[in-house]
Amino acid sequence: MTVMRQDIGERPYTVDDLEDMPDDGRRYELIDGMLLVSPAPALRHQKIVAKLIVMLDALCPEGMHVLPAPFAVRHSRTTEVQPDLLVAREEDFTDKLLPVAPLLVVEVLSPSSVMTDTNLKKSLYERMGVPSYWVVDPRQPMLDVFELNAEGRYELVSVVKGDQAFEAVRPFPVRVVPVELLGTLK
């Protein structure tokens, strides 16, 4: 279960507080000063992340990189998240983090992350200006694709289930079939 706490005493959490978090296999993230603590992901979650990394990295154009969590995307002193997977331009990275919006963020749902990934993080990524946001449900399997419209709001542009294919254009061309992301898992 994702644990959320509002603040330390009288102040919101900051990125400085993340440095003091234990290295215990959990993911520690901040959204607007609120601490989110998530448990280590399960098998289906990790299999999907691994398959997406291999698939996207094989087609990733020069000058872009595909990275899995944990890698920090820092929006401000009170907001730092670690998407399950991100794609960003090489010039936008520092050695330790990504201080600007990625081109693509992918979150793979876990039972404890459904509300966070589909509401809180989706809202944050929209506010940051992440052009493409994919949400993968490993139970179905299913892929929801959101893209920013002209007004800077996410629009659901595709819902792909099972053996249906999604032909992505952003941030680069790639074909994703949700059931194939599970590999040999059933």
From TrEMBL:
Residues 16-173 form the Putative restriction endonuclease domain. This is Putative restriction endonuclease domain-containing protein. Pfam families: Uma2. PANTHER family: SLL1072 PROTEIN (PTHR35400:SF3), SLR1083 PROTEIN (PTHR35400).
